[in-house]
């Protein structure tokens, strides 16, 4: 079964609140074989919400909405669902009594505005909310279903686990599972990796896709079916083939920084860092990893340039910086990143140099330093240079 998720709330579309509900829902639905095809964020506007729900209701067998079930004027999900499905709202006394009882249990008096929470579209199945004051509801038409849940994560999760999943298993007979496996890469490009596994990406099953972030890549493999053992075998077989073809780019699943630190520890090697950028991308990238940084890192020197230099001078400074910190800190390796002057196109050549005993390797990463991803690209380039040297 395929599903659509609709997250409702202006706080989501403004970016002041991150939509974690949809990510959790997608992972949870996968456990019963439901594949999310589309996720939509929509602001608290009755016309916009109605339009989004009506379109989803026409094309998807399962539509799940979160948010907009509160008692205030901007909680418009009930009205939008009613308009989109052409089902007028009707009052449910038992829901109202339950809301009132919950307020009494808090020692508080219910406001008149809470009365609107006891309305649900005609013919919908009311779902009391034992964790909050916003009831949910399900519209079930056999071939398709629409479910609405509160936006409060704890309430939404409770109702999904106690109402949605039993509904899908018991009334829709869903017995299949969906497994997802991720393989992480660095030292390549999305295009290069994609070319090496193009036939697997074009196959109907298992499903294979690639996503990128700061020059690190995730290959996602998904497989589904009713036989858990067979699904596991299918995904393992595909993952093994992907890993075989991309072997030289593989890194640990918890990230490149953790991968590099583990390799340093395995080689009983240490590292010293020379940072020519104020953001200290190499040090901060390593610091984010789970393994103990102190075991591998001997020292860090952060020395931004006093004035801009050309690429040749930046590379010379990087070589000198890497050697200096290696010698000063008596480390196995020294690595440095030094930026050249900004070009007419707004981009900068960042010279990265790794030195060790009988070793000197360099790499230049061209980045736009003002961009949000610039430091991430530099981190990845530097750490991958270390990784490839250690694994050579």
Automatic annotation (TrEMBL):
<dbReference type="InterPro" id="IPR050101">
    <property type="entry name" value="CinA"/>
</dbReference>
<dbReference type="InterPro" id="IPR001453">
    <property type="entry name" value="MoaB/Mog_dom"/>
</dbReference>
<comment type="similarity">
    <text>Belongs to the CinA family.</text>
</comment>
<dbReference type="Pfam" id="PF00994">
    <property type="entry name" value="MoCF_biosynth"/>
</dbReference>
<dbReference type="InterPro" id="IPR008135">
    <property type="entry name" value="Competence-induced_CinA"/>
</dbReference>
<protein>
    <recommendedName>
        <fullName>CinA-like protein</fullName>
    </recommendedName>
</protein>
<dbReference type="Pfam" id="PF18146">
    <property type="entry name" value="CinA_KH"/>
</dbReference>
<feature type="domain" description="MoaB/Mog">
    <location>
        <begin position="4"/>
        <end position="170"/>
    </location>
</feature>
<dbReference type="InterPro" id="IPR041424">
    <property type="entry name" value="CinA_KH"/>
</dbReference>
<dbReference type="InterPro" id="IPR036425">
    <property type="entry name" value="MoaB/Mog-like_dom_sf"/>
</dbReference>
């Amino acid at each position: 079964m395929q599903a659509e998720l609709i997250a409702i709330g202006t706080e989501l579309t403004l970016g002041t609140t991150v939509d974690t509900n949809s990510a959790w829902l997608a992972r949870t639905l996968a456990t019963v074989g439901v594949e999310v095809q589309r996720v939509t964020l929509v602001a608290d506007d009755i016309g916009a919400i109605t339009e989004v729900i009506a379109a989803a209701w026409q094309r998807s067998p399962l539509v799940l909405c979160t948010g907009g079930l509160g008692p205030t004027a901007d909680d418009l999900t009930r009205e939008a669902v009613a308009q989109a499905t052409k089902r007028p709202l009707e009052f449910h006394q038992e829901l109202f009594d339950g809301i009132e009882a919950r307020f009494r249990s808090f020692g508080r008096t219910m406001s008149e505005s809470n009365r609107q929470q006891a309305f649900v579209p005609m013919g919908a199945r009311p779902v009391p909310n034992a964790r909050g004051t916003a009831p949910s509801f399900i519209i079930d038409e056999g071939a398709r279903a629409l479910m609405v849940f509160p936006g409060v994560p704890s309430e939404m999760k409770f109702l999904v686990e106690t109402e949605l999943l039993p509904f899908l298993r018991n009334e829709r007979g869903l017995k299949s599972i969906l497994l997802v496996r991720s393989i992480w890469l660095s030292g390549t490009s999305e295009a290069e990796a994609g070319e090496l596994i193009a036939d697997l990406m074009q196959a109907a099953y298992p499903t294979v896709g690639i996503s990128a972030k700061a020059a690190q890549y995730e290959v996602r493999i998904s497989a589904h079916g009713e036989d858990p053992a067979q699904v596991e075998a299918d995904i393992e077989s595909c993952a093994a083939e992907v890993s075989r073809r991309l072997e030289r780019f593989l890194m640990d699943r918890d990230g490149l920084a953790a991968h590099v630190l583990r390799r340093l520890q395995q080689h009983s090697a240490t590292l010293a860092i020379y940072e020519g950028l104020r953001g200290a991308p190499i040090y901060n990238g390593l610091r984010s990893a789970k393994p103990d940084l102190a075991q591998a890192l001997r020292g860090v020197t952060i020395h931004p340039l006093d004035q801009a230099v050309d690429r040749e001078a930046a590379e010379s400074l990087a070589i000198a910086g890497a050697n200096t910190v290696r010698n000063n800190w008596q480390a196995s390796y020294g690595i440095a990143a030094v930026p050249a002057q900004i070009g007419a196109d707004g981009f900068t050549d960042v010279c990265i140099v790794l030195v060790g005993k009988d070793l000197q390797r360099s790499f230049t990463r061209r980045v736009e330093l003002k961009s949000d991803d610039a430091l991430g690209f530099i981190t990845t380039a530097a750490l991958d240079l270390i990784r490839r040297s250690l694994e050579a």
